[in-house]
Amino acid sequence: MREADLLDLIKRIEKVRSIPYACQAAVDVITDSLQHSSASIHLMNARCDRLEAVAFSKHPPGVFQLSKGGSFLWRTLDKGEPRTVGLPCARGYHQGMPEARHALLVPLISKGTRWGLLAVESAKPNEFTEADCLFCKLVACILGNSISHMKMEERFSASLQTLSGRNTQNRILLDISLELFSSKDRQQIIERFVRSIYNNLGYDKVFLFLREFPSGSLSLAASRGKSLSMDILDELLAGQKGLLGRVLMTGLPALSNDVTQDPDYFPDDEKTRSELAVPVKYGETFWGVLVLDEYTKDAFRREDLQLASILCSHLAVVLDNIEFFRRLERDLDLMEGLHDIVSGAASESDIVSLCNRIALQLRERTRYSLVEISAVVDEKTGRSRILSSSRPEAATPGFLEERSKRLWERGGGLCAQAIKTRSVVNVSDVRASDNYVCLDKETLSEVDVPIIFGERIYGVLCVESGQAAAFKEEDLRCLTILARHIGVLWAHYELLDRTTARSLQDPLTGQWNRRCLHEKLREEIDRAGRYQTQFSIVMVDLADFKEVNDKFGHAVGDMVLVEISAFLSANLRASDSFFRYGGDEFMALLPETGREEAQAMMERIEKDMSERTWSNEAVRVLVDSGIATCPPDGTDVDSLIRLADFRLYEQKRKRKLLRAQETGEK
Predict the structure, then answer these.
(1) SS3 (DSSP) at 629
(2) Residue 198: is its pLDDT beyond 50?
(3) Do 403 and 529 have their domain in common?
(4) Assuming Cys at both sites, which of 41, 47, 299, 482 could form a disulfide with 23, CB separation 3.0 to 4.6 Å?
């Protein structure tokens, strides 16, 4: 997966803080990921009047040095936007890979500063795909920010080297500053920073107030010397009092060599006589404040202020660097999560099950408050029908039909707008939207992404949040990618339904497959209606089965699937039926069985499984299950499966929550 390649690039750059190494790592990861490609990087020199090649992979660039002018590379860098070009090119582009047919140029930019250019050449006859372009842009983003931070580190280190020759105190501060780069753990850096200042510089008290995130609230991150009581700390932060408050208001350092005469001083310790407060700030990002206290008057000199300011700026650079990579890793985790959702959903055999799984898993793995997927009924009017929803009531018979009816009677909402325009609709505050239809009072922002494949619009992915302006650029990008995957699968299922007659037996386990399940369910629903009886279905999921495949390999995983399916099937009655629903999920059909009987059966099976191991590797596997009973829980196939699936995920969620609580207690 390319997400793994990007995370590996981050780790490699962080391990060796070198610009040439970072550039070489970037071109290597591109050529490893993109077949038939060659990559190179040119950086601007110190005078910004020449581009110089610093790294390349597979083929050297067409030119190693390029003076500023009207060449294709310089024009692309000046515009600051990626662009592609067909090769050979007569517009001043120097081709490096002889057989290349296309080139993609991506400027390396961080916070408005242009550092250079990434050039990727490809021998493929077709142009770069959208996924290729996104991957190269992410590599350029990582590299641009890394270069920016390493340049800043070089400047700070040079400043500190100059100061270090002046006196012993400055040499100590140099050691403290350089030590910041010996770790990438945020809390470890903070503790080490404060401890070093306290131990090596001899201040009576050291307090470091920081924000966890740039937009977060301020808190005491670390301290040495006499501690502050919770009451004093709360009053100090809530009221932004003292020299701390002055720094927060002005963004400038504050120094008082006689706090008894300073009206802004907050008396947290009667022995304090001098106080110095310095902002921890990098660019426009205000991370917090460093506060130093002394028990003597006139304790701080101008040199103390100067050096403390340098150290705080240096700390801010490190924090900014950590936050950038942490944010990027969160985005990559989201993309990887979407990949897992799509991979799991691809095992579904019909579009309703597909949408139901995606809605539940997307809600479970993100901060979104509601996920729904609708099918287009009429593109011209924008009318739609809700197929799936992450709301608990979605499994209730008739709930989605009634919800669809309410939405259409009130104009179709933002979903209709997305259908008619075939474009993403992102409303940061639904209270200000004339098109929004309120079906959930807690919703403050909503995004609707059309599901399109080819020339046809199949449906809409609707995501809501209880926070205003909740959907950022990375959310829109990931949701758009997910909608495209759904469109492909949707078209695929329709094609299969029209052209493919599937066998009724799962080739791996020998159990009945999902197609057979649907036919059996329809038959059982008819029989229950005729004879006024009831039956239950049980959806069974092998808990955390992905870990089995990751640890032991897919061969062992398949063996465990076969053994467990045989065990589960053998523990049913002769009148029951057992099916492989997909992946590591199974379904049991229990005629003339109520919910309580089905629950008792599953408790017995779960107990037996907790005492068993599987395959020669002695693998232990637990199960999660969800039960639905006809007729009380529904009288159609989709409603019953949807409810069983929902109850399964509820049990899975509760099990994980309980395990997390137990782990926390221990």
Answers:
(1) strand
(2) yes
(3) no
(4) 41
List of residues 6+ apart from 617 with CB closer than 8 A = 552, 556
**Domain of residue 481, CATH code:** 3.30.450.40
Phi, psi values for residue 621, rounded to 5°: -140, 130
Residues 232 and 303 in one domain: yes
Task: DSSP for 337-385, please give it.
Answer: HHHHHHHHHTT-SSHHHHHHHHHHHHHHHSS-SEEEEEEEEETTTTEEE
Burial letters 646-657, b for 16+ CB under 10 A, else e: bbbbebbeeeee
Angstrom distance (rounded) from CA 21 to CA 353: 48
Walk across the sheet containing 205-211 and list its strands: 218-224, 205-211, 285-294, 274-282, 254-256
Q: Are residues 127 and 169 in the same domain?
A: no
- CA 402/CA 398 separation, integer angstroms: 6
d(CA 372, CA 360): 9
Q: Which domain holds residue 313?
A: 165-324
- Phi and psi torsions of 474, nearest 5°: -70, -30
536 in the same domain as 637: yes
- Over the Cα atoms of the chain, what is R_g? 31
pLDDT tens digit sequence for 409-425: 999 999 999 999 999 99
Distance CA 183, CA 603 (A): 49
Same domain, 177 and 133: no
List, as one string, the DSSP characters of 135-198. Answer: HHHHHHHHHHHHHHHHHHHHHHHHHHHHHHTT-HHHHHHHHHHHHGGG---HHHHHHHHHHHHH
Of the pLDDT bands very low, low, confident and very high (cuts 50, 70, 90), residue 463 is: very high
Amino acid found at 242 = G
Q: 542 and 482 in one domain?
A: no
Q: Which pLDDT tens digit goes with each residue over 591-644?
A: 999 999 999 999 999 999 888 999 887 889 999 999 999 999 999 999 999 999
184 and 123, same structural domain?
A: no
pLDDT tens for 352-393 read 888 998 899 888 888 889 999 999 999 999 999 999 999 999
The pTM score is 0.45
Give the pLDDT confidence of 301-312 residue by residue, as tens digits. 888 888 888 888
My answer on whether 86 and 139 are in the same domain is yes
Contacts (Cβ under 8 Å, ≥6 apart) of 162: none
Residues 6+ apart with CB under 8 A from 133: 82, 84, 104
* Residue pLDDT, tens place only, 37-90: 899 999 998 888 888 999 998 888 888 888 887 678 888 888 888 888 888 775
User: What is the DSSP track for 5-49?
Assistant: HHHHHHHHHHHS--HHHHHHHHHHHHHHHSTTEEEEEEEE-TTSS
Whether 468 and 429 have beta carbons less than 8 Å apart is answered as yes
Query: What's the number of CA atoms in the CB half-sphere (13 Å) around residue 4?
Result: 4
Q: Where are the beta strands (DSSP E) in 543-584?
A: 577-582
